[in-house]
Design goal:
This protein is an alpha+beta fold. It contains 15 helices and 22 strands. Helix content is 51%, strand content 19%.
């Protein structure tokens, strides 16, 4: 007998094959389209780079023309004074040494007056200057640009030469271009853009470029070839782009562009490595898409197959979640059979368990609130004790005119302090309360404790516990500033950091020894007398931790004889709906 294949397995196979086939077809079509677009964009991008390089050469051409005209003007004005001309040539060369190799005058006997250090020393006639002088003499109204050649003083260079009209004797002005500067610019583009650029003459000579990035080229004697095609043949072809193959059969794309000012060509030779890299990334994406399609096909097929046996699988899954602790799960199977009865019984059991847990949580929450109220009750008597001591001190010092000020501040502080301690207040209200408190202490000790506030924008309405800052500020005055024995500033800084809100109280007082910091925030046993300096800080620390969790609370940073910073850490999420 043939083995029977169940309906869920048949559905799984059919759906899987259909979805996967659709994804493969769409992926193949997308790949072909993107491949074509990448080739088009690559040509467009290369043309943009060639345009930029041509603009760079056009700017340089204008600069060289300006140099020639400057020399012409200077020489005509000082034709009888050779020393002045030498000085001006030197200054002009030094000013443009980043772009030119030399600036000089060519006499009819082929000797020179040069601007560079070498040509100022060696000015003997050279026969290789004759073509330059003759070209200038034959084209007296224009500037002549030579082919690249090897100069004895300037190395591999191109010379721009212009005849000096109006001089009493034959004279030509010459500027040797610094081809190294142009080549360095091309090399930077080659490296950054992963391109292979060069500047060529119409005869196929390399002016600059290619030397550091040969790629598929065969470079020799300042020219090159690709396969059996020479540089001159490439430049003679019509059109701006062509495709060739190297001796190894590697395809190479070539773009060429004539320069605007020079009779040169810009040429880009790309072995398609950049495009192949882009296509390789696309292939990786395509493979990822196929994997995602495979997974999607499996998911859809599994979902449809699972739907056939949904009641049993649903009940089994829900029971597993309850076993793992998810008591919010409800099993609702509206069937008029055993599955329906089992579902109703399971739901009733979960409701009873959730109710028991809810009652236990309410009990724990009530205990936590009572503990918070106990902690809060420790602050108010302590605060009132210190405030009344301040009033007493004012009267003792005979500062009767300040009593009204102290009493006014005390009334404001008492009205603030006796309100519902469980209700949170804004940071703005806490700062106002601290300001009243410091006003009392300034009068009491006849000192000036300056209150400095650095509050990040938007945090003035941040909700905090009532009486959060006043005990910390009190601690700064009594212990940082020796109970009013010295005066100084108290800075309150509020800011956001990593999902938390930090509120710092910083004083520049005596500081706290390192061995005592770890014990300050530890609560004292109820049968031990608690010193006054310990009540506020461990109280506030406990309130924050009880309300927000163990990871929040106070942090104390202190440097003896320099500063103390008490930082309260709150979750930033408490900003919304908690005030």
């Amino acid at each position: 007998m043939r083995r029977r294949i169940s309906l869920p397995i048949k559905l799984f196979t059919i759906v899987f094959a259909f979805v996967l086939s659709c994804i493969i077809l769409i992926s193949q079509l997308s790949y072909r389209y993107v491949q074509k677009e990448i080739r088009t964009n690559d040509i467009y991008y290369t043309n943009q780079i060639l345009d930029k390089v041509d603009q760079y050469l056009t700017v340089n051409f204008s600069s060289f023309q300006t140099i020639l005209f400057s020399v012409e003007t200077s020489v005509k004005a000082n034709i009888a004074n050779t020393e002045v001309i030498k000085k001006q040539l030197r200054e002009l060369y030094e000013l443009n040494s980043n772009y030119v190799s030399n600036i000089y005058l060519i006499n009819s006997d082929l000797s020179i007056l040069g601007g560079s250090t070498t040509t100022r020393i060696f000015d003997e006639p050279l026969s290789d200057r004759k073509p330059l002088f003759d070209a200038a003499d034959n084209n007296r109204r224009t500037t002549f640009v030579s082919d690249p050649y090897k100069s004895k003083y300037s190395g591999w260079t191109v010379t721009m030469v212009r005849y000096l009209n109006g001089a009493p004797y034959p004279l030509a002005i010459a500027v040797d271009l610094d081809l190294n500067a142009i080549e360095e610019t091309l090399f930077k583009i080659n490296k950054k853009e992963q391109m292979n650029l060069a500047l060529m003459t119409t005869s196929g000579k390399i002016i600059a470029g290619f030397s550091e990035n040969r790629g598929p080229l065969s470079i020799q004697d300042h020219t090159f070839s690709i396969g059996d095609t020479s540089a001159e043949e490439i430049l003679d072809t019509t059109g701006t782009s062509l495709q060739l193959h190297t001796q190894e059969g590697i395809p190479v794309s070539i773009l060429k562009k004539p320069t605007e000012k020079f009779n040169w060509f810009l040429i880009s030779i790309n072995d398609e490595s950049r495009m192949e890299a882009a296509l390789s990334r696309l292939e990786n994406f395509y493979l990822g898409l196929l994997v995602a399609g495979l997974l999607l096909s499996l998911f859809i097929s599994f979902f449809i197959a699972k739907y056939i046996r949904n009641p049993l699988y649903a009940l089994k899954t829900k029971m597993k979640r309850v076993e793992q602790g998810d008591l919010t799960t409800t099993v609702t199977i509206k069937r008029n059979d055993e599955f329906g009865d089992l579902s109703l019984a399971f739901d009733r059991m979960l409701q009873q368990i959730v109710e028991l847990i809810r009652r236990a949580e309410l009990h724990n929450e009530l205990e936590r609130k009572l503990e918070i109220q106990v902690l809060q009750s420790q602050i108010n008597p302590h605060f009132l004790y210190n405030t009344l001591g301040s009033i007493s001190n004012v009267i003792r010092l005979g500062q009767i005119e300040k009593v009204d000020v102290v009493i006014g501040s005390l009334i404001a502080i008492l009205e603030y302090g006796i309100a519902d301690a469980s209700e949170k207040v804004s940071l703005r209200q806490e700062l106002r309360n601290v300001s009243d408190y410091i006003a009392i202490q300034n009068i009491r000790y006849n000192r000036h404790f300056e209150l400095i506030e650095h509050i990040e924008e938007g945090l003035m309405d941040f909700p905090v516990f009532r009486m959060l800052l006043q005990p910390i500020v009190e601690n700064s005055i009594f212990h940082g500033y020796s109970g009013g024995g010295i005066e100084g500033s108290i800075t309150i800084h509020a800011y956001r950091n990593g999902g938390n809100v930090m509120i710092e109280v910083i004083d520049q007082g005596e500081g706290i020894p390192a061995d005592r910091i770890a014990h300050i925030l530890i609560a004292e046993p109820s049968d031990v007398e608690v010193k006054r300096k310990r009540i506020g800080l461990n109280n506030i620390h406990g309130r924050i931790r009880l309300h927000y969790g163990e990871q929040y609370g106070l942090q104390i940073i202190s440097t003896p004889q320099e500063m103390t910073s008490v930082r309260a850490v709150f979750p930033e999420g408490s900003f919304k709906g908690d005030a």
